[in-house]
Design a protein that fits this description.
Layout lengths: L1 E3 L9 H7 L8 E3 L7 H8 L3 H12 L5 H12 L12 E5 L2 E5 L9 H5 L2 H12 L4 E7 L3 H10 L5 E8 L5 H8 L6 E7 L2 H13 L1 H9 L2 E4 L6 H20 L9 E6 L4 H12 L3 E8 L4 H8 L1 E3 L20 H8 L4 H14 L1 E3 L2 H10 L2 E3 L2 H15 L5 H17 L5 E5 L7 H9 L9 H12 L5 H4 L11 E3 L3 H11 L2
The protein binds pyridoxal-5'-phosphate.
The site of pyridoxal-5'-phosphate has 17 residues, from helix 12.
Length: 500
């Protein structure tokens, strides 16, 4: 069963928690108890394909779903043709003591696919289980990656619609094309006149507008979110930690029982938190290393115990980690404090009113033991992309490069020689300008179209451009609507009736 981190909500089944998204008391849903596995479980995973590994792990958390339901969700998400690698999330040996766990072989070339391919299926199944009749309308404000991954994930999924709002001037050319060429009958994409904050504020306002919600409820619609606070987005991420470990055992790069480190480029703390659950379940993880860019709020928190968002915000080469409030940290704190929801509520209230909170030395010591942390700036990120390509012939996207460098710094500082698994969150082609610039200099990207940059990058790193990105050049534009931020409620209301 699932509880809220803030403690004011009755226990719920996982289907209820997934259908609700965020808990009504403002907290996040967490499992009442974390299931444990033994060695045999991990050994068994070694001979399974990714889909079966996923079903085995999901079953432990989503106990109100039947095996048939989970197998069907998993087959739809990771089955034939969806991911360009048959392994779905392959592990690639790069250096002597380093491997990369590639999470970007899905339809949008970034790690959000790992969860957003599965969440819509879990949600649609949950609606049936709890007898929800309403059509669920997913509203997404996006600065780039999440919008496209949500569109791909929810495309033609029963009883759901998805509406994405992106800032007209705020996304890269590739990201815009990925969204405006989106196919599917149950979705709409809008450019908002303004920046990401305008789009995000607009969506939040609609969510909290009671009159609006009552009105659409009358017509049989209900709003929901595909944000990483939904348990249905977190639980699929636990799978690839186990899967990576099972691959390494199967390929005899480690022996069953050996400990490994995972190094995770972190923004909202969702990815790395899934690693925490894996460790609590019994996966032999030594450290979960938290890597940040110049928005180093997590590095400071994990080293001092003070979380403070009162600091400048930087736009960096790794935009998916440009974040000052890491929502999923709340779940970690809940478990570390042994489910002290009063304490969590106080800290979150403090964060809301003063912009910071302090967890004290005892809790800090517990967290520090598990989560070493570090950060690197853009200059180091670019240098790492270049150096790793020269040394190993392996191309990193900027987010993964941050993790790579933090891992090296950690090894230097601590002498810890445990195998480092770098969690690779995006294809280098997704952030092609930054990567080509790092590898070939500023002139190589100057006045070039996105597609020219993609092609040149392909030649330099000797890998094909992912077909879904290459195809964008010739795809029909299907979504041209632009709206002012004040018009968003009107636009949503009109769209839900004209979308299937
Ligand atoms: C979303 C994202 C991240 C950050 O993941 P969190 O779960 O928010 O910590 C890192 N890299 C890429 C490429 C992403 O899209």
């Amino acid at each position: 069963m699932y509880l809220s981190t803030r403690g004011q909500v009755e226990r719920m089944t996982s289907a209820q928690a997934i259908a609700q998204g965020i808990a009504p008391d403002g907290g996040l849903f967490v499992p009442e108890a974390i299931p444990c596995v033994d060695e045999t479980f991990i050994v068994t995973l070694c001979s399974l394909c990714y889909q079966d590994r996923a079903a085995a792990i999901l079953q432990l958390f989503l106990t109100d779903y039947t095996e048939v339901e989970l197998k069907s969700c998993v087959a739809g998400a990771y089955g034939s043709g969806k991911f360009s690698s048959p392994a779905v999330a392959p592990v690639v040996k790069v250096g002597e003591q380093t491997v990369a766990l590639e999470l970007w072989h899905g339809p949008t070339s970034a790690f959000k696919d790992m969860a957003l391919q599965l969440l819509p299926r879990l949600l649609s199944c949950a609606l049936k289980k709890i007898g929800e009749q309403a059509q669920i309308v997913i509203l997404v404000a996006t600065s780039g990656d999440t919008g496209k991954a949500a569109l791909e994930g929810f495309k033609d999924v029963e009883q759901t619609q998805v509406m994405v709002f992106y800032p007209e001037e705020g996304v890269s050319q590739i990201q815009r094309l990925q969204m405006v060429t989106q196919e599917g009958e149950n979705l709409k994409v809008f450019a908002v006149k303004g920046n990401f904050d305008d789009a995000q504020t607009g969506v939040k306002r609609i969510f909290s507008d009671q009159a609006f919600n009552a009105e659409i409820a009358n017509d049989g619609f209900k709003l929901s979110s595909a944000n990483s606070i939904n348990w249905g987005r977190l639980v699929p991420q636990i799978v690839y930690y186990f899967s990576a470990y099972a691959d390494l055992v199967r390929d005899q790069q480690i022996t069953q029982g050996d400990k490994v480190n995972f190094v995770v480029p972190t923004g909202n703390f969702g990815n790395i938190l899934a690693g925490y659950y894996a460790k609590q379940m019994g996966l032999p993880i030594n450290k979960l290393i938290c890597a940040s860019n110049s928005n180093n709020v997590l590095t400071d928190f994990l080293t001092t115990g003070v979380y403070s968002r009162n600091r400048p915000f930087y736009k960096t080469y790794s935009p998916s980690m440009d974040i000052l409030i890491s929502s999923n940290l709340e779940r970690l704190l809940y478990h570390i404090t042994k489910q002290d929801s009063k304490q969590i509520s106080q800290w979150m209230e403090k964060l809301n009113t003063t912009g910071e909170y302090h967890i004290g030395d005892e809790y800090l010591a517990a967290i520090k033991e598990l989560f070493p942390a570090g950060w690197v700036d853009d200059v180091q990120t670019a240098a790492t992309i270049d150096r790793v390509h020269k040394e190993y012939g392996y191309a990193l996207d900027p987010h993964t490069a941050v993790a790579w460098q933090v891992a090296e710094n950690y090894r230097h500082q601590t002498g810890d020689t445990t195998l480092n698994i770098i969690v690779s969150t995006a294809s280098p082609f997704k952030f092609n300008q930054t990567v080509l610039n790092a590898l070939a200099g500023a002139d190589s990207v100057k006045n070039k179209s996105e597609f020219a940059v993609l092609n040149q990058l392909s030649r330099i790193i000797d890998r094909p451009v992912p077909p879904a990105l290459a195809e964008l050049e010739h795809k029909a534009i299907r979504h041209t609507a632009v709206c002012g931020k004040q018009d968003m409620p009107k636009v949503v209301k009109a769209a839900i009736h004209t979308t299937r």
